Amino acid sequence: MLELYQFELSQYSEKVRLILDYKGLNYRKIEVTPGIGQVELFRLTGQRQVPVLKDGIRYIADSTEIAKYLDLEYPERPLLPKNSKQRGHTLLIEEWADESIGTKSRKAFFSAISQNQNLRKSLLPTTTPDILKTVVQGVPSELLQIMGLGVGYTPDAIRSAIADLKQDLEALTLLLADSPYLTGDEPTLADFAVAGLSLLLKFPDGPYLDLPATLSGQGVPLFAENPAYEPFFSWRDRLYAQFRKPLLSSTAPTSPTSIQIE
Predict the structure, then answer these.
(1) Cα separation of 2 and 33, whole Å?
(2) Is the dihedral of CA 185, 186, 189, 195 positive or negative?
(3) Are strands 27-32 and 2-6 parallel, antiparallel or unpaired?
(4) Burial bucket for residue 81 (CB in 10 Å: 0-12, 13-18, 19+)
């Protein structure tokens, strides 16, 4: 069976999960513990970042490379159209989504959890002790903002990311106004990239992620609760309903295997 080394909250991991489900491939999720688990992942694969796909003895890193590998080795339900113009559009949108939505939505999401105590508490695993949840919930917003400065999440960077994301979602809504998918009548890599990478802006409705059910439909309020972006998220939820496999139970999700150093 294919194995996906991942973070459940990683948009790039979600992009790959969408592709695997679309192709009807069975796989096992292996949750990489940030920090020590990444050291173990590096020992196994030479990579510290997720996602990494294991197929037999092969390890494939990077969501784009994984998509290309899957299309080559498992050609049913292809991700890239045969038409050269559509293929070019697909590749352009996928690369743009990786660099724009993928990176900027993390900044917007960081701003949201910095300001919303309940949201950051909800992101903790269900097995987290109540006392630790209370500690996390009570971390002052000012302290989180200072921590953000250390990774380049300055107020100006966050404002710029949010402004760009507004334009991105407007553009995507226009592209989808008279088409079921971004580059034509069939889903492509572009659709799964955009859908997966928008994960943090608004979590999909339905039991697709190993996260508390209360997070369904939540996200960055500026986007998740804004009617102007509802057409885009409605399209994305339809894509999920069509192709994403739900968890076995929304009340008792199956947690992925964890990887960490003993």
Answers:
(1) 19
(2) positive
(3) parallel
(4) buried
Q: Please, which residues bridge with residue 55 across strands?
A: 58
Spatial contact of 93 and 195, defined as CB atoms under 8 Å apart: no
Structure tokens at 199: 């994960």
User: How far is Cα 62 from Cα 47, in angstroms, rounded to an integer?
Assistant: 9
Q: Are 91 and 41 in contact (CB under 8 A)?
A: no
- For the chain, percent of residues with pLDDT exceeding 90: 66
* Crossing angle between the packed helical segments 101-115 and 155-175, to the nearest 10 degrees: 120
- Cα 103 from Cα 100, distance rounded (Å): 6
Q: In what order do the strands lie in the sheet with 52-55?
A: 58-61, 52-55, 2-6, 27-32, 257-259
pLDDT tens by residue, 120-169: 656 755 554 444 344 334 444 554 454 554 556 788 999 999 999 999 99
Largest CA distance in the chain: 56
Instruction: Quote the DSSP letter at residue 51.
Output: P
Which pTM value belongs to this model?
Answer: 0.85
